[in-house]
Amino acid sequence: MSRSVIRAVVSVAGASMLAAGVSFIVNIISARSLGPELRGHVATVLQLAYITAPIIGYGVDRALLRQEEGSGQDGASHEDLGQKSPRYVLPSLSAVLIALAVVAAIIWPIYGPWIMMAAPAALVTVWMSWYRSDAIRTKKLRGFLIATFGYQGSILIGSLILWLLGVRTWQYWAGVYIIPGIFFALYGFMVVRRNQALPQGALRESIRNNAALTWSGLAKLISTRLNRILLPAMVSAGSLGLFIVVATATEPLYWIAQSLADYQTSHSGKGNSRDRRAAARSLAKGSLLFLPLGVIGGAALWFLLVPLFGRAYEPARAFIIPLTIASILLAMFRHLCGILLAGPHSQKLGAAEGAAAVAAMIIFPIVIYTHGALGAAWGSIAVYLIGVIAGYVLLPARNENS
Q1: 402 occurs within a structural domain
Q2: Which domain holds residue 287?
Q3: pTM across the whole model
Q4: Any stretches that span the bilayer, and where are they (predicted)?
Q5: How far is CA 51 from CA 54, 134, 201, 214, 383, in A?
Q6: What's the average pLDDT block by block, 10 residues per block, for the chain (402 residues)?
Q7: Residue 195 falls within a domain, yes or no?
Q8: Is 400 domain-assigned?
């Protein structure tokens, strides 16, 4: 691996780790300031924003990763394989806002008017993810890194101010993720509009052309976030407040795996299929990173949970073991999804993530109804394990290019 590639991967992973680090710090101070119940309201806003993002983002973050530099389509490699290249489009601003309005109209009656803070938070999430993919594709990382540092810095500074002032109104704590984040995200959106070679599409074109990637992005969020959406609706916001402190603390492993997968997708032979044996070797190498980090992180959290978050969060210790195991499986699943996204058949990515999403829609309601937040934690293991198995099975037994 060349020095420039290593530097780029470290930069992308570093940006994700910065976000994870800020989330961890903000997680601590907001948990201590708000308590489980109000912390759960903030978490509900953010989780709804994350699960809304793929719907209003139309899979553009993944389309940009698959797009060859200088090409308006999916890349020439698919044509070399005798396949028609998908024609992804960049949705217009009106298409994004229409999709956002439809989603808002659905969730408003369920969670109430204050939950509409998830709408601008979703816009920030979408446009920053587009900017990230465009920066990886074009290898112009400096601007993205500056915007990321600025956005994460605004979250951290805003949260510290609220903590020092003793603010316990949860809406203010949710607001630090939106202002001034919306300005950094809008700048990223403008950069993507300037750099992209994808044609711009209205609502209908965006739905039709980007359907496969939109679904795979939504399926990813269903498998990773559905349990967090169901907890406040089926149990209580307080249960989510307990769950989220552990879930957030174990997420750095996910961001490392996702960053590595995204860079490999964009720059490691798009359109070239890897068979199961090659994928198994890649997973074995990845496990040398994922397993130690997961175990060390889980062990540290076991001893630091109460000192960091306070005595009110001691019941959350029951979630550490299952969520640590789940984080390792999720890292392996994201690694496999990166291999599938880079291959010639992007539909297989949707199938793998769809299998995990279907498993989540079946497993999470049952285990949350029967065992509450603890069921959500153990259910995550089953969901991600199904995803790993599905992703591996969907890879060709032998290299399709041989």
Answers
A1: no
A2: 3-394
A3: 0.71
A4: 6-29, 88-108, 114-131, 143-166, 172-192, 288-306, 318-343, 349-369, 376-395
A5: 7, 21, 23, 12, 17
A6: 58 72 85 87 88 88 68 42 61 90 84 83 92 84 88 93 92 91 90 83 86 83 89 87 87 78 62 72 83 91 87 91 94 86 70 92 96 95 94 78 50
A7: yes
A8: no
